[in-house]
Amino acid sequence: MAGHERRAKLKRIAERAGKYAAVGHPKFPWRSKTTPYRTLVAEFFLQRTGAVQACGPYRDFMDRYPSFRRLAAAPESAVLAALAPLGLRHRAQTFLRLVTCLAEEHSGRVPRDEPTLLALPGVGHYTARAVLCFAVGEPVGIVDVNTARVLCRAVSGRRAAPPRPGTGRRLRVLADELASAASDARMAQWGLLDIGREMCTEEPECAKCPLRRDCAYRARKGKR
Ligand code: SF4
């Protein structure tokens, strides 16, 4: 596919995904107000907890600790109690190390560049890029199991990402291409997450997918 055709296709996918997120996505509390602090906490909550299950604990946590200053001033035992609904004690310990690191090394401010974000305890590529895209407004792509599946299918026509070294980096490059083609990278990424969670699952339900007209995998499989 020629470069301009590929970019046009990426733009169509990005715009359709963004429109889907704008009109159809559930009202997740981390989408209504995005700051680096709120997004960082949300992505921590979502690391091993489903989005629907994370809503209540996230709302309760934000009611209690609406700012990093309030969180940093709280006793560890109170923070651990607020994280208890998520389970996984080691994750809570990582969160405490993250809070300490932000307080001691970053004056309580969440960094706004990828290398510095990646150096924080418990922060990987997905979380770092989510902060940059959702809260800072940079046109960077995010790759998790859901967006990877949608990107591989819609753009490359593959059922799943090949298990080769470097696949993660290549997917991030592709996700960045799509984000930079979008008129609203944040909505486009939310749309990819929603489509991956709701219909582009193990057995994709292409008939109700907003990307069906441009999807290379659907074209290859001749799905209706
Ligand atoms: S058309 Fe089907 S395979 Fe393609 S992105 Fe949508 S659900 Fe996934």
Secondary structure elements and their pairing?
Layout: H1 3-24, H2 29-32, H3 36-46, H4 51-64, H5 68-73, H6 76-83, H7 89-105, H8 114-118, H9 125-136, H10 145-156, H11 167-181, H12 185-198, H13 216-221
Helix pairs in contact: 1-11, 1-12, 3-4, 3-9, 10-12, 11-12
The structure holds iron/sulfur cluster.
Descriptive notes:
The protein is built from 13 helices and no strands. It is mainly α and 224 residues long. It folds into two domains: 106 residues, Endonuclease Iii, domain 2 (Orthogonal Bundle), CATH 1.10.1670; 108 residues, Endonuclease III, domain 1 (Orthogonal Bundle). Helix 1 packs across helix 11, helix 10 packs across helix 12 and helix 11 packs across helix 12. The protein is elongated, with a radius of gyration of 18 Å. The mean pLDDT is 92.
